Automatic annotation (TrEMBL):
TPR repeats lie at residues 76-109, 110-143, 178-211, 246-279, 280-313, 314-347, 348-381, 382-415, 485-518. This is Tetratricopeptide repeat protein. Keywords: Repeat, TPR repeat. InterPro entries: CellSynth/LPSAsmb/PSIAsmb, TPR-like_helical_dom_sf, TPR_rpt. It holds the Pfam family TPR_11.
């Protein structure tokens, strides 16, 4: 035995043991010691380079490896390592050139061909990649990896029949190769063959329950097909295995919302928030579920938590204001929008929301001031002009109201509410009746199912003394807004004009049932009933 052989062997064993334990620094030291004792060993020099790569000393490894391959151009282990190094540095063309050298030296090196094919594929040269994989298959028809890569390229090129053949050959050779079943599922899904795709995805999951991509494809496929119950089952299955998978829990909660299963949706978002209390999006979804469940105070509490986490969260403020408005807590809604306006003056809807809240509590001066502030910034906002018109109507400024409504319609000829409001205002005063009828009909074209606009149309016909048309439209309006006192009042007026006094009385009494919805209607209707009862024939 040469005098240095014992030391080389000893250091090599120490290096190998360190490498197995992933102690790369120790391995490098021992391989270097062995190489010092046997400087002519290509294997030891290659191992030193390998440890330099493991330690991230890439420039040193590159220099040493390029020198090694230059002096020993036929030493395949070094060339293979150089190809790997170039690949890690994104030097794709250089890596391909190295693997070509390897194949010229040893044409049986299908491992080099596979790596080269993958590199061609990575740079988008699918034709060259496919050619390389097919070359491998000529030499080794049952090479599973070559079959797989050729199949994925065929799939990408939408050559589905060819892809199916390749993947089916894989599962014949290796029945537990879940990725092959996954790709068969993709191939069938791309062709719209949902049932077959589902079968292949389920086979992939049967082999490998942790195949997240197969599960994801099933979920996406079910959602696309609106089979939300199936998508929910898949996500529930994921959570059984991985209960702390937050993204899945959020998606499940959203699907529950989609399916209007608000109780389960709320439950999922609450669990998620226990783990991620700062997740504003999840908390907002919880609010939506709570609102649908009628748990309004709990929803308000969650919205306030969102505001405490994000003091400028517009959605939270808007939702709070909306809830207070639905509860007729207009003063509280106004406070919310006042706070929004303190930090957000660049959105016209803020002025609309605040101004309309003031209107509800009859703070007309404040409302006008807010609308004027808004119009200084957003004179092209038809909503602001429309709401300013409502203010003028409430404060008895008819001409100003008409001007604002006309401006709103000029800015947005499809503003159905402005068209209807102006048409009704004319009709109610018995003025410009042909124009009123035209305005209301334009509004109705935009909102054909609006009971309020149909009521306006009936009222315009009443003012034109077209009583049959008035009656027909008011009865139609009641199909959409059965609890609106004004529609019932109008119907009573039409019946009275037609001499059908019993019907008129019934309609007016029906209006009184809902009088709280319209300020001032109760004494007006009661007076009509009184006059009918004491003076009109029946």
């Amino acid at each position: 035995m040469p005098p240095h052989a014992e030391k080389v062997y000893f250091e090599y064993l120490l290096a190998y043991e360190a490498e197995l334990s992933e102690r790369w620094g120790d391995a490098l030291t021992h391989y270097s010691n062995a190489l010092a004792a046997d400087p002519g060993s290509l294997h030891l020099r290659t191992q030193v380079v390998n440890m330099l790569i493991k330690l991230g000393k890439i420039p040193e490894a590159s220099s040493m490896l390029e020198e090694l391959t230059a002096r020993n151009p036929s030493y395949i282990p070094a060339l293979m390592l150089l190809g790997e190094l170039y690949n890690s540095q994104k030097k794709v063309d250089e890596a391909i050139a190295v693997y070509k050298k390897v194949i010229l030296i040893d044409s049986a090196r299908n491992d080099a061909r596979l790596l080269m094919g993958m590199l061609f594929s990575s740079k988008g040269d699918l034709q060259s990649a496919l050619g390389v994989f097919e070359e491998v298959l000529k030499k080794d028809p049952d090479n599973v990896m070559a079959l797989y890569y050729a199949g994925t390229i065929s799939l990408e090129r939408k050559e589905h029949a060819k892809a199916d053949t390749l993947f089916k050959r894989i599962v014949e050779l290796r029945p537990t190769f879940d990725a092959a079943y996954l790709n068969l599922g993709l191939s069938h899904e791309m062709r719209g063959e949902v049932k077959s795709a589902e079968e292949y995805y389920r086979k992939a999951l049967e082999i490998n329950p942790a195949n997240a991509f197969a599960r994801e494809r099933l979920v996406q496929m079910f959602i696309a097909g609106k089979s939300y119950d199936k998508a929910i089952k898949e996500l529930e299955s994921v959570l059984e295995d991985i209960p702390d998978h937050h993204e899945t829990r959020q998606r499940l909660g959203l699907l529950y919302l989609q399916e209007r299963n608000f109780g389960k949706a709320a439950s999922e978002f609450k669990i998620l928030l226990e783990a991620k209390p700062g997740d504003i999006t999840a908390r907002y979804y919880l609010v939506l579920a709570l609102e649908e469940l009628g748990k309004i105070e709990e929803a308000v509490g969650e919205l306030k938590r969102i505001v405490s986490l994000d003091p400028k969260n517009l959605n939270a403020f808007y939702n709070l204001g909306y809830i207070y408005t639905k509860q007729n807590r207009y003063a509280d809604a106004a406070k919310i929008y006042e706070e929004v306006l303190s930090f957000e003056k660049g959105k016209p809807e803020v002025y609309v929301y605040l101004g309309t809240s003031y209107l509800q509590i009859k703070e007309y001066k404040k409302a006008e001031e807010v609308f004027r502030q808004g119009l200084k910034r957003f004179d092209v906002s038809d909503d602001l002009h429309f709401n300013m018109a409502i203010l003028y109507e409430k404060t008895g400024k008819f001409d100003e109201m008409v001007a604002e409504l006309k401006r709103a319609i000029e800015l947005n000829p499809k503003n159905a509410d402005a068209l209807n409001y102006l048409g009704y205002s004319y009709a109610d005063r018995g003025m410009h009746l042909p124009e009123a009828l035209s305005l209301i009909n334009r509004a109705l074209e935009l909102k054909p199912d609006s009971g309020y606009i149909i009521d306006s149309l009936g009222w315009a016909y009443f003012k034109l003394n077209r009583l049959d048309d008035a009656l027909n439209n008011l009865l139609r309006a009641l199909k959409y807004v059965q609890d609106d006192p004004v529609v019932h009042e109008h119907l009573g007026d039409v019946y009275a004009a037609m001499g059908r006094y019993d019907k008129a009385l019934d309609a007016w009494q029906e209006a009184l049932k809902y009088h709280e919805k319209e300020e001032g209607i109760k004494p007006r209707v009661e007076e009509k009933i009184r006059k009918l009862e004491v003076g009109s024939p029946r």
